Amino acid sequence: MKDNNNKLQIENLENQINLLNVEIGGLKNNVKISAKITLLKQLELELNTLKRN
Description:
By secondary structure, this protein is mainly alpha-helical. It is about 85% helix and about 0% strand. It has helices at about 1-25, 35-50.
């Protein structure tokens, strides 16, 4: 069950990261970009931690 939950968490994070990358691409000159980049980095960190476990 834990493995399945972990797999779902990883998939969810990967999807969020992909969506954020698309959003960032469209926001290049927008003030919201720094917040999106910060969120992206946090999600990438969380994803890497999950993948290591």
